[in-house]
UniProtKB/TrEMBL annotation, chain A:
GO terms for biological process: immune system process; proteolysis involved in protein catabolic process. The active site is at 34 (nucleophile). One of its GO terms (molecular function) is threonine-type endopeptidase activity. PROSITE patterns: PROTEASOME_BETA_1, PROTEASOME_BETA_2. The proteasome is a multicatalytic proteinase complex which is characterized by its ability to cleave peptides with Arg, Phe, Tyr, Leu, and Glu adjacent to the leaving group at neutral or slightly basic pH. The proteasome has an ATP-dependent proteolytic activity. This subunit is involved in antigen processing to generate class I binding peptides. CDD domains: proteasome_beta_type_6. GO terms for cellular component: cytoplasm; nucleus; proteasome core complex. It comes from the Eukaryota. Gene3D superfamilies: Glutamine Phosphoribosylpyrophosphate, subunit 1, domain 1. It catalyses: Cleavage of peptide bonds with very broad specificity. SUPFAM superfamilies: N-terminal nucleophile aminohydrolases (Ntn hydrolases) (SSF56235). Keywords: Cytoplasm, Hydrolase, Immunity, Nucleus, Protease, Proteasome, Threonine protease, Zymogen. This is Proteasome subunit beta.
UniProtKB/TrEMBL annotation, chain B:
It is found in: Cytoplasm; Nucleus. The active site is at 42 (nucleophile). Residues 239-269 form the Proteasome beta subunit C-terminal domain. Component of the proteasome, a multicatalytic proteinase complex which is characterized by its ability to cleave peptides with Arg, Phe, Tyr, Leu, and Glu adjacent to the leaving group at neutral or slightly basic pH. The proteasome has an ATP-dependent proteolytic activity. The proteasome is a multicatalytic proteinase complex which is characterized by its ability to cleave peptides with Arg, Phe, Tyr, Leu, and Glu adjacent to the leaving group at neutral or slightly basic pH. The proteasome has an ATP-dependent proteolytic activity. This subunit is involved in antigen processing to generate class I binding peptides. The keyword Protease applies. Belongs to the peptidase T1B family. Keywords: Cytoplasm, Hydrolase, Nucleus, Protease, Proteasome, Threonine protease. The keyword Magnesium does not apply. One of its GO terms (molecular function) is threonine-type endopeptidase activity. SUPFAM superfamilies: N-terminal nucleophile aminohydrolases (Ntn hydrolases). The lineage of its organism: Eukaryota, Metazoa, Chordata, Craniata, Vertebrata. One of its GO terms (biological process) is proteolysis involved in protein catabolic process. Component of the proteasome complex. This is Proteasome subunit beta.
Length: 233, 275
């Protein structure tokens, strides 16, 4: 298989189907309609996501894992079309794995982010994918890169994405300070995701968290009844 | 560009030449009658239990308002340890599962191993993503392999979900209610079968597109138990008459024999080697 694997989308137009035997949402594309977040701290990154995948108004999977492993110390948070992001993540994981074997050393987070950007930008007309690439490498430590719809690439110390992110920009602007430690980052992420899940219909379920550092990856799940509670009359 | 009167072997894969034509036709007439694909309008469900996986399906295939097939088989064989339930367009699920089964059989023969469920999932995901939702197949894949008991769902756009229990098809909301209420991790065989049966039954009762009998397929390390039907429909009707007509039922009024004039153009004799 060639080292430069390319995705070849054939038909991008939707075939309309007038059959009313099956409900509307079965013909809708599966969307992760989500809230994702990634924060850098000194020594690593904390990433988090909700767990809801929707097909229109129906929740196709209420325990989705949107934190996808790309390499040992590099993960990505997926938002947008479930099929598109799963396909892109697989392609990038393959490309990065190959690259890492060639170099005989762990890959850089910036490399992974650029691979995502390359695919997302080239096929920007056909894809709906908003991705946060986060991880740790020896050269620059913990890094978060944002690759939104359209294929831009930008490094940010903290980044949120998905349909639920719009509800927490104010919270992030007022509550994030540089220089937080790992546990503070975890708490910030859990709180932010909970607030977004409260307000966004397309986000919900459980909160999945992960912290990536030199030591490794530590994953955690916060179930619905254990989420922080905010009183709203 | 090939001449229209010379036969060309068709290119491999699906032929979408008519998709553009159908789309154009629909636009021309108000509510234009393009051919409606046969949808299974289904309830399918799967549950992972302690020793394996249980898959269940109803057996009704509909063509708009008419039941086209009362005893349709929706649980397809993929490999001796993997079965697949299909919802959506009947032709798409049939062909897709056939292709998958062939590919995995070739793999088995080449490597001498039983295929793993992840392999089936990856092949399906790859194919369905390539066709961008044009193949209307909603599939539930269940199987047991050396890594454990697995249940996956693959959507028509190529999205994959790995879950311990799920239901698909037009009756899935009804079935999912039963599954959400009754599922526990590590169920025993009989409770698992009963749970799936109840889920499909709920789909049959609450959804017009599902009905007739319930098929159950139990996959374990020891083997596969394909129970068809597990539960028969209570509304089964016994035919009161035979529909076979003997010769002489229709009277012959006139008979006309016209001998065809044939010319021997070429005669070749090929000896068979019988030695």
């Amino acid at each position: 298989m060639a080292a430069s694997s390319v995705m070849m989308p054939y038909f991008s137009q939707q075939v309309s189907s007038k059959s009313d035997m099956v409900p509307d949402w079965t013909r809708q594309e599966v969307s992760t309609g989500t809230t994702i977040m990634a924060v850098e701290y000194d020594g690593g990154v904390v990433i988090g996501a909700d767990s809801r995948t929707t097909t229109g108004a129906y929740i196709a999977n209420r325990v989705t894992d949107k934190l996808t492993r790309i390499h040992d110390r590099i993960y990505c948070c997926r938002s947008g079309s479930a099929a598109d992001t799963q396909a892109i993540a697989e392609v990038v994981a393959y490309q990065l794995g190959f690259h890492s074997i060639e170099l005989d050393e762990p890959p850089l987070v910036e490399t992974a982010a650029n691979l995502f950007r390359a695919s997302c930008y080239r096929y920007r007309e056909e894809l709906t994918a908003g991705i946060l690439v986060a991880g740790w490498d020896r050269r620059k430590g913990g890094q978060v890169y944002s690759v939104p719809i359209g294929g831009m690439l930008v490094r940010q110390p903290v980044s949120v994405g998905g349909s639920g992110s719009t509800y927490i920009y104010g919270f992030m602007d007022s509550n994030y300070k540089p220089g937080l430690n790992k546990d503070q980052c975890m708490e910030l992420t859990a709180t932010a995701l909970t607030l977004a899940m409260e307000r966004d219909g397309s986000s919900g379920g459980v909160v999945r968290l992960a912290s990536i550092s030199e030591e490794g990856v530590e994953r955690r799940v916060i179930l619905g009844n254990q989420l922080p509670k905010f009183s709203t009359h | 560009m090939a001449l229209s009167n010379s036969y060309e072997t068709p290119a491999p894969g699906f032929n979408f030449d008519n998709a553009a034509r159908n789309a154009a036709l629909e636009g021309l007439f108000d509510g234009g009658q393009t051919p409606k694909p046969l949808k299974t309008g289904t309830t399918i469900a799967g549950v992972v239990f302690k020793d394996g996986v249980v898959l269940g399906a109803d057996t009704r295939a509909t063509s708009s308002e008419v039941v086209a097939d009362k005893m349709c088989a929706k649980i397809h064989f993929i490999s001796p340890n993997i079965y697949c339930c299909g919802a959506g367009t009947a032709a798409d699920t049939e062909k897709t599962t056939d292709l998958l089964s062939s590919n995995l059989t070739i793999f088995s023969l080449n490597s001498g191993r039983n295929p793993r469920v992840v392999m089936a999932v990856n092949i399906l995901q790859d194919m369905l993503y390539r066709y961008h939702g044009q193949i209307g197949a909603n599939l539930i894949l269940g199987g047991v392999d050396c890594t454990g008991n697995h249940l996956y769902t693959v959507g028509p756009y190529g999205s994959v979900n790995k879950v311990p229990y799920l239901s698909m098809g037009s009756g899935d909301l009804a079935a999912l209610g039963i599954l959400e209420d009754g599922f526990k991790p590590d169920l025993e065989l009989e409770p698992a079968k009963e749970l799936v049966r109840a889920a499909i039954h709920a789909g049959i009762m609450s959804d017009l597109g599902s009905g007739s009998n319930i098929d159950i397929c139990v996959i374990t390390k020891q083997g596969v138990d394909y129970i068809r039907p597990y539960q028969e429909s209570q509304y089964k009707h016994n035919r009161t008459m035979k529909y076979k007509y003997g010769p002489g039922t229709t009277p012959v009024l006139t008979e006309k024999v016209v001998p065809l004039k044939l010319e021997v153009v070429q005669e070749t004799v090929q000896q068979m080697e019988t030695a």
